[in-house]
Amino acid sequence: MYQNLVIVGNLGGDPEMRYMPDGQAVTGFSVACNRRWTDRSTGQPQEEVTWFRVSVWGAQAEAVNQYLRKGRQVLVEGRLRPDPNTGGPRLWARNDGSMAASFEVVANRVQFLGSNGNGNGNGHSNGDNGHSAETKQPAYEEDDIPF
Predict the structure, then answer these.
(1) Residue 27 burial (CB < 10 Å; 0-12/13-18/19+)?
(2) Which residue has the higher pLDDT, 133 or 16?
(3) If you ran DSSP here, which 8-state letter would residue 60 be given?
(4) 74 with 12: CB under 8 angstroms?
(5) 20, 144 in Cβ contact below 8 A?
(6) CATH for the stretch 5-128
(7) 123: exposed, middle or buried (C-beta count within 10 Å: 0-12, 13-18, 19+)?
(8) What does the domain layout of the chain look like in residue ranges?
(9) What is the three-class DSSP state of 46?
(10) For a pLDDT cut of 70, what percent of the chain falls above it?
(11) At a CB cut-off of 8 Å and minimum separation 6, what does 144 contact?
(12) Cα(33)–Cα(89) distance, integer angstroms
């Protein structure tokens, strides 16, 4: 069996990096993917936003934490990680009491896109001249990640 998910979107906030007890870096961040269209019946523009919570490991985690900030566009390639209790997206209650869901992604590759705000729009993920290293996934469970 094999799954591969590719998303392109913008960071919803600054990345948060932590270290596992063995020293392995892990960075978490959220990505918003927008879909826009015009409703055929009303002619009104419509928009749908899907949020993904991404975790990335190792050297890529450190690069993401160092170079990415809220609003930056990224391409993330990885796998969906279902909620261990439901087998689907992770369900949670918003501050107003309404229910929400987040889709969890374990990234194999994070590619920086667009400009980083200083005029450098080369899209390189970690100064590697366009090559994106794939991250070897550790044997940690999502509940072990300290955020």
Answers:
(1) buried
(2) 16
(3) H
(4) no
(5) yes
(6) 2.40.50.140
(7) middle
(8) 5-128
(9) strand
(10) 78
(11) 20
(12) 16
Instruction: List, for residues 48-93, the tens digit of each pLDDT value.
Output: 999 999 999 999 999 999 999 999 999 999 999 988 888 888 888 8
Least confident of 69-73, 106-110, 118-122: 118-122
**pLDDT of res. 119:** 42
How many C-beta atoms surround the C-beta of residue 99 within 10 A? 8
Backbone angles phi, psi at 62, to 5 degrees: -70, -40
Cβ neighbours for 123, distance < 8 A, ≥ 6 positions apart:
111, 112, 113, 114, 130
76: tokens are 């993330």
Query: Do the Cβ atoms of 57 and 26 come closer than 8 Å?
Result: yes
109 pLDDT band, cuts 50/70/90, is: very high
